[in-house]
C-alpha cells in the first residue's frame, strides 16, 4: 500500500493508504467523525481530493480497501469485474472520470456499457469530487430498466412504494392504508409491508391479504412483506404468494453476517423466487435496502468511510438483478447523518452511485425525530431526486410511519412531484388508474368525495379482512 501526499492551505498532508484518502475526501458527516475517519480540517479534506483526482481508476483494482482473503464482498467485486466494459475508461484518473461522466459523450448508452466495469470504490471516489448538481446531472442520464408486473425506470417515470405499515399488523388497518394509497395513485413500485411481528405465519397472512387485494382489482404491481430472507425461503416452501424477496444488505461480509446473511443464502432465495415465475413483464425478483451507517453501527466497516462502504453494498445488489434497491437515507439517525444537509447529500450520493453501477435505485426520503432535520429538508431531497431520475420513492400515510416511528414521504408528496415535474407512474399502472376512473380528463388523480359509492364499497371490501 502506497502513501499519498498533497499540499493545501500551506500545509503538507499525508495519507497512509487508499481508504484513508477516500475517508478524508468525503464531505463532512457525523458518522465518519464518530468513527474517527473524517478529515481533521477543511484543508485536509481538500488535500485528499487533490490526491483522489490524480489517482488512476486502475488503483482500485490493484489495492483492495477490504482484504480479498477475509471478505466475500471484495471477492465478488474483483472476481466479477468486467475488464472489457472497463476498457474505454481504463486510462482515466478519478478526476478525468468525473469530467467524462459530465460530458455529452457519456450518454445513457455509454453509461450502461461501462457500468459492469465500474467498481463500487471507483463510484464512491468520483462521487467525492462532485457537487450536488453533478450528482444529479449524471444520475439523470443513467437509464436502468427493470420489470415484474410493470416496467420501472423508464424516462419521465417516477414509481412509488406504498408502505401501509401497522403497529399490530392488523389486516384491516393495512388494507385500509393500502386502499388509501391506491386512491392517490401510489404503489406501482411495490406494496411493501414491514411486519411488526416477523414470524412466518403472520407474514403469510399479510402476503395472502395483499395478493387477494391485487387480484380482486387486477392491480399491475407486486407485493412484498419485508421479512428476513430465511423466512422468505420458508414461506415459499409453504406455497404462499411471494412476488419479491426482500433483504437488508451492507458492504462487507462482516456487516452482512450481522444481518444474518451471506451471498450463498441470497443466491438460494433468488433461485427460489425465479422458479415461481410470478412476473408478467419481467422476472426481477429481489428487493434490497441499504443505508449509510449500517456497517459502522455493526462495527463491521473495516476502517472505511460510510459512503464508500455503502456503495460496496450495491455490488451485492447488482449480482442478483433486483427489481428494487433503495437507500433508507436518514433512518439510522443523527449519529451517522446529523442534519438535513448531510441527509440530502447522502441521498444524492447513494442514488448517483447506485445508478452508475447499473441498479434501479430508489430512496426512502426520511429522518428520525431526534435528527436536526424536518419535512422541508425532505421536500428538497425528494424534488432533487426526482429531477435526478430516481426510480422510486417510498410513501406512507401522512408521511408518518406509525409502526417504525420515523418520518418519510406521504401520498400527497407523490402527487406534488407528478404535478410539478410532470413524471408519471409505470405505464401499466397508469393504464390501470385510467381504467379504474381514478384520473380526471387532465390526467390528474381524481378527488373522490367520501360519499362516493365506489369509495364506500372499496373501503367496505378492504376492511372486511380479518
TrEMBL record:
InterPro entries: Aldolase_TIM (IPR013785), EutB (IPR010628), EutB_dom_2_sf (IPR044939), EutB_N_sf (IPR044941). The gene is eutB. NCBIfam families: PRK15067.1 (NF011649). Pathway: Amine and polyamine degradation; ethanolamine degradation. It is found in: Bacterial microcompartment. Binds between the large and small subunits. Its cofactor is adenosylcob(III)alamin. Gene3D superfamilies: Aldolase class I, ethanolamine ammonia-lyase heavy chain domain like, lyase. Belongs to the EutB family. Coiled coil: none annotated. It catalyses: ethanolamine = acetaldehyde + NH4(+). This is Ethanolamine ammonia-lyase large subunit.
Amino acid at each position: 500500500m502506497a502513501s499519498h501526499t498533497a499540499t493545501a492551505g500551506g500545509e503538507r498532508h499525508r495519507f497512509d493508504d487508499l481508504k484513508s484518502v477516500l475517508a478524508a475526501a468525503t464531505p463532512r458527516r457525523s458518522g465518519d467523525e464518530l468513527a474517527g475517519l473524517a478529515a481533521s480540517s477543511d484543508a485536509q479534506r481538500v488535500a485528499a481530493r487533490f490526491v483522489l483526482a490524480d489517482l488512476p481508476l486502475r488503483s482500485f483494482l490493484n489495492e483492495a480497501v477490504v482484504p480479498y482473503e477475509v471478505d466475500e464482498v471484495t471477492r465478488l467485486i474483483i472476481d466479477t469485474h468486467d475488464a472489457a466494459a472497463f476498457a474505454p475508461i481504463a486510462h482515466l484518473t478519478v478526476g478525468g472520470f468525473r469530467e467524462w461522466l459530465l460530458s455529452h459523450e457519456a450518454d445513457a448508452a455509454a453509461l450502461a456499457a461501462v457500468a459492469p466495469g465500474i467498481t463500487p470504490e471507483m463510484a464512491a471516489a468520483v462521487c467525492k469530487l462532485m457537487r450536488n448538481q453533478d450528482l444529479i446531472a449524471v444520475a439523470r442520464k443513467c437509464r436502468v430498466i427493470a420489470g415484474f408486473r410493470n416496467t420501472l425506470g423508464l424516462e419521465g417515470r417516477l414509481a412509488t412504494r406504498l408502505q401501509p405499515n401497522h403497529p399490530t399488523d392488523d389486516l384491516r388497518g393495512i388494507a385500509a392504508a393500502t386502499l388509501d394509497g391506491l386512491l392517490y395513485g401510489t404503489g406501482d413500485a411495490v406494496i411493501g409491508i414491514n411486519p411488526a411481528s416477523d414470524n412466518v405465519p403472520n407474514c403469510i397472512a399479510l402476503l395472502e391479504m395483499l395478493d387477494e387485494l391485487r387480484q380482486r382489482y387486477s392491480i399491475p404491481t407486486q407485493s412484498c412483506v419485508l421479512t428476513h430472507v430465511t423466512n422468505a425461503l420458508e414461506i415459499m416452501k409453504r406455497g404462499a404468494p411471494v412476488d419479491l424477496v426482500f433483504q437488508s444488505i451492507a458492504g462487507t461480509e462482516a456487516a452482512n453476517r450481522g444481518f444474518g446473511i451471506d451471498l450463498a443464502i441470497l443466491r438460494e432465495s433468488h433461485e427460489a423466487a425465479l422458479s415461481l415465475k410470478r412476473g408478467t413483464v419481467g422476472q426481477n425478483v429481489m428487493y434490497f435496502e441499504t443505508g449509510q451507517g449500517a456497517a459502522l453501527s455493526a462495527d463491521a466497516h473495516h476502517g472505511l468511510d460510510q459512503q464508500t462502504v455503502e456503495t460496496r453494498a450495491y455490488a451485492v445488489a447488482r449480482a442478483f438483478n433486483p427489481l428494487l434497491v433503495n437507500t433508507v437515507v436518514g433512518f439510522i439517525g443523527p449519529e451517522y447523518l446529523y442534519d438535513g444537509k448531510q441527509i440530502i447529500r447522502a441521498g444524492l450520493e447513494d442514488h448517483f452511485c447506485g445508478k452508475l453501477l447499473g441498479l434501479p435505485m430508489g430512496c426512502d426520503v426520511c429522518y428520525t425525530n431526534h435528527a436536526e432535520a424536518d419535512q422541508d429538508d425532505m421536500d428538497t431531497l425528494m424534488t432533487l431526486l426526482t429531477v435526478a431520475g430516481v426510480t422510486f420513492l417510498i410513501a406512507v400515510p401522512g408521511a408518518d410511519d406509525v409502526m417504525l416511528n420515523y418520518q418519510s414521504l406521504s401520498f400527497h408528496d407523490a402527487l406534488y412531484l407528478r404535478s410539478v415535474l410532470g413524471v408519471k407512474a409505470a405505464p401499466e399502472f397508469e393504464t390501470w388508474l385510467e381504467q379504474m376512473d381514478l384520473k380526471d380528463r387532465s390526467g390528474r388523480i381524481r378527488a373522490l368525495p367520501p360519499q362516493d359509492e365506489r369509495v364506500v364499497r372499496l373501503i367496505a371490501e378492504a376492511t372486511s379482512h380479518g
